[in-house]
Amino acid sequence: MKTDVELCQRPIFVVGAPRSGTTVLAWALAQHSGLWTSGESYVLWELFGSERGNRGLNLIFQTAEVLAGGSWLTAQSVTRPELLAALGLGVNALFTSRSHPKRWIDHTPVQSLMVETLGGMFPDALFLHALRDGRKVVHSMIHFLEALEPDVRANFEKAGWKIPWLDFTEACRTWRQYVESVHSFELANPRRCLTVPHDRLVGETQECFRAIYEFLGEPDEDAPVEFVRTKRLHSSFQPDREAAPAQEKPARAWTEWSHEQRTIFTREAGPTMIRLGMATAEELQPDAA
Length: 289
Known about the structure:
Layout: E1 12-15, H1 22-29, E2 35-37, H2 43-49, H3 51-67, H4 72-75, H5 80-99, E3 103-106, H6 115-121, E4 126-131, H7 134-142, H8 144-147, H9 150-159, H10 168-188, E5 193-197, H11 198-203, H12 205-216, H13 223-230, H14 253-256, H15 259-275
Parallel strand pairs: 1-3, 1-4, 2-3, 4-5
Helix pairs in contact: 1-13, 2-3, 5-6, 7-10, 10-15
């Protein structure tokens, strides 16, 4: 049995709402000689972030409270943050065993909803917030099934997976909830977070990556820039998976939506859009098509 454990000192979490470019940002960074990523993990979410995971953690400490001095956690004065940090070491060791010697990147969007917990579990981790205009994200969400290959869609159906944000209203709420969760963490931990606006990632790619490298403390390399420039960033409106971003059809969200949809978006996501400087109140008037 292997006893020597290696840990990544500064893991990276790419967070953000679904359909915001979290995957392409992570895989672009993985082209860097010092960085590594793989598929979406869901490990941390299922164990520590989901309703089931939270219920399990709550039960652990409720049991400790009932047992009082008879509980190991109580006797040793173990707090919830301390337990989470210790469990984070185990997950770090597992991920590092696959990424070594490179620095690992996790890019599971749903973990944006537990970003504060991640910050405690991985006290040295840094966070990149992939932020995309909510109108484009919602438009991409509701067309998501069009992007799936037939066999992948069949797997979804076979597993009985239901994606709530295929519904327009839920898509608006999902974008808001994810962005607000990450933004709140950013405000409390500005040195650990960097927002990566999607428009800048596409339009000012080289400058954008230079800012990311400086934030991460990594040397400048060209491969991630070339990856973004030559790969398709979103898949909702274009079947060619290798097409360059310039060939991607624009998501003509606001003008294609009905008045009712624009009203729903303004109600559900408008305040967040305005607060983050992504739109003005005038631009989000339902009649401003």
